[in-house]
Design brief:
Strand order of the largest sheet: 1-21-20-12-18
Low-confidence stretches: none
Shape: globular
CATH architecture of the largest domain: 3-Layer(bba) Sandwich
Mean pLDDT: 96
Structural class: alpha+beta
Distance between the termini: 40 Å
Number of strands: 21
Length: 643
């Protein structure tokens, strides 16, 4: 897939004009309403039960809609949102340190390297305070300072303390809040939950999303489910790299199948590298472990000043250490944004200053913080994170520095949506990490939880109201040809996978794909590498369909079959991701093209040619690129500086 066509520009027509601070209120007021009696007549499918999906399902059901909710885990509590550690941003200004809605808006647009929509980001900043109020009302046990007020800490890319947290398990606590709200609606009969059920395709009838085809992961039964609107809250696609901080089950199947039915995919090359992960330890690993960015509040990052210095860290005196982030970016120090911290670590290791096995690590040292605050204070803030690190590495971070290295974490790309979170397929909405988000080319730490809950609790409900109030919805029969055709295609695909009976495992293909993507579309990309990967990927995909081996049958619990379907989609998705990275001949945020960097090695944007959202339309072997040109009336693009 080296070629593509240039299509007509695309535009977001739902965001109102006028002062940015009034746009969200204006959109809510102009959105059509559905009266409570009529809401009971509508069915809405929500796929996913993480922060975005769980909050969306609970809120829509609370409004009176009949919600049909799906998750491939055995419980909504197992959604990958549970793994988020550090915190959630909100412009409450409890610290009286200069924070405001506008500053959160500014930091987010700048942190995303000026590749996000101003209207969306300002709305996110406005809603942020309501999210905290909602979660406190649900009983989320946020940390509190001595006087009883909610405590906050700093995250990368900002100079204020706006991140609310619950030790190192913020995602888990927020997810439990959404889950209890969802459970209440399940008990009331307003939510019909299908656990251990995976969406395998989208049903489109008369141009509208009207349902999904799903497979019961226990029995293997393939069934269709119909509704008046479909919401995808299925997370990101970071596992295309095989090794990532994502849960092993996280995948791109839902958004990729929707893409092939007509939903545009936006900015797939925008992936985030998290700088604070435990380095890989060998070929046996199937995933990587994240250490929260919150650790950079008190931990100092350094490497030896002498390349190849293999002395233990306690034998390297202070005068021979390079606290390189503090040296390079004195205004932000260890709290620079993730893309900048990640590239700096890679540069240090590439230059021979790395530590640990293979020189693929830098130190994150808490000695100063323990000396200043005392070990009990550090334990109170980060105890569970320190325990997790020790269990994995057999090293005590209270006594020796942690070793960290960047890894694939979050994906800023996803399904293209308008201001109402609606895709290019009417009736299909995407929320949370499944859409191309509000983060541009790089996400600031603690903003994922903010966006997921903003979408689910506050943005999606009025958007769904407006859509359902504005159309007529004839009942779709289960034997409608449009339904039967999609269901037949799903069954055929499953049967085709099982029929290969080759000699290679699914994981072997996934690992090879991941290495290809990491080497050529990871922390740094260049034209030669991207073209090399684009040459190899079609051959790998062909080999997959010729040699993959899946034991067992489709009429039972078969995890190899589950994985095979997801990897088959990754093998297609990865090609579009490489093409998107090749076409975008600039560096911005997490997308770092080596040909486009400043003399200091920083990302060099090309605003004249690439200030747009790349929205890709599926068109077989020759995808179509539609550009949504970005306009900046409030935060004018400049070269990002954190010095």
């Amino acid at each position: 897939m080296h070629e593509y066509e240039l299509g007509e520009p695309i535009a977001d027509t739902k965001a109102p004009d006028g002062p940015i601070e009034r746009r969200w209120d204006e959109r809510k007021f102009t959105a059509k309403l559905v009266n409570p009696a009529n809401r009971r007549k509508h069915r809405v499918i929500v796929v996913g039960t993480g922060l975005a999906g769980g909050s969306a399902g609970a809120t829509l059901a609370e409004q009176g809609y009949h919600v049909i909710q799906f998750c491939f885990q055995d419980s909504p509590r197992r959604a990958h949102s549970v793994a988020a550690q550090g915190g959630i941003n909100a412009a409450k200004n409890y610290r009286n340190d200069g924070d405001s809605v506008y500053r959160l808006f500014y930091d987010t647009v700048k942190g995303g390297d000026f590749r996000s929509r101003e209207s969306n980001v300002y709305r996110l900043a406005q809603i942020s305070g309501q999210i905290i109020d909602q979660c406190v009302a649900q009983g989320v046990p946020f940390a509190r300072e001595y006087g009883g007020l909610l405590d906050t800490r700093s995250f990368g890319g900002v100079q204020v303390q706006r991140t609310f947290y619950a030790r190192g398990q913020t995602g888990q606590q927020l997810l439990l809040g959404a889950y209890q709200a969802l459970s209440r609606q399940i008990d009331a009969g307003n939510v019909e939950l299908h656990a251990r059920t995976e969406m395998l395709d989208l049903i489109v009838v008369d141009g509208k999303a009207r349902g999904i085809v799903a497979r019961d992961l226990i029995t293997g039964e393939v069934t269709s489910h119909l509704a008046d609107a479909v919401v995808l809250a299925t997370g990101g696609y970071g596992n295309v790299f095989y090794l990532s901080t994502n849960a092993k089950g996280s995948n791109a199947t839902a958004i990729w199948r929707a893409h092939k039915r007509g939903a545009y995919l936006a900015n797939p090359c925008f992936t985030q590298i998290h700088p604070t992960c435990i380095p890989r330890s060998g070929e046996h690993q199937s995933k990587l472990t994240l250490m929260s960015e919150s650790l950079r509040n008190d931990g100092r990052i350094w490497v030896p000043q002498r390349a190849g210095d293999d002395r233990p860290p306690d034998r390297i005196p202070e005068s021979e250490r390079d606290y390189y982030l503090e040296r390079l970016y004195p205004s932000f120090g260890n709290l620079v944004p993730r893309d900048i911290a990640s590239r700096a670590a890679k540069n240090m290791c590439d230059a021979g200053f790395g530590v640990g096995p293979g020189g693929l690590g830098v130190y994150l040292d808490f000695a100063d913080a323990i000396a200043r605050l005392g070990r009990p204070a550090i334990e109170a803030k980060y105890g569970n994170l320190f325990d997790m690190y020790e269990r994995i590495t057999a090293e005590n971070p209270y006594e020796v520095p942690m070793r960290i290295y960047p890894a694939i974490h979050y994906t800023m790309g996803g399904l293209w949506v308008d201001y109402d979170l609606q895709t290019t397929i009417p009736g299909l909405f995407a929320v949370g990490e499944a859409n191309f988000s509000d983060h541009g080319a790089n996400r600031l730490g603690a903003s994922a939880l903010m966006q997921g809950l903003a979408d689910g609790y506050f943005v999606l409900p009025p958007a769904i109201n407006d859509y359902l109030a504005g159309g007529s919805f004839e009942t779709v029969a289960p034997d409608d040809p449009a339904v039967s055709e999609v269901e037949s295609e799903v069954r055929s695909r499953v049967e085709r996978l099982l029929a290969v009976r080759g000699d290679r495992t699914v994981d072997s293909f996934h690992r090879e794909l991941g290495m290809l993507m990491w080497d050529h579309c990871g922390m740094a990309r260049n034209e030669t590498g991207l073209r090399k990967a684009l040459e190899r990927l079609p051959a790998l995909r062909e080999e997959f369909w010729r040699r993959v081996r899946i034991p067992g049958t489709g009429a039972e619990l078969n995890q190899e079959l589950e994985k095979a379907g997801r990897v088959a989609d990754f093998l297609e998705f990865g090609e579009l991701m490489l093409l998107d990275a090749l076409v975008r001949e600039e560096s911005c945020g997490g997308h770092f093209r080596e040909e486009h960097q400043t003399p200091d090695g920083e990302a060099q944007r090309d605003d004249e040619r690439f200030s747009y959202v790349a929205a890709w339309q599926y068109h077989g072997e020759k995808p179509v690129l539609h550009k949504e040109f970005l306009e900046f009336d409030y935060v004018h693009p400049t070269q990002r500086s954190y010095t």
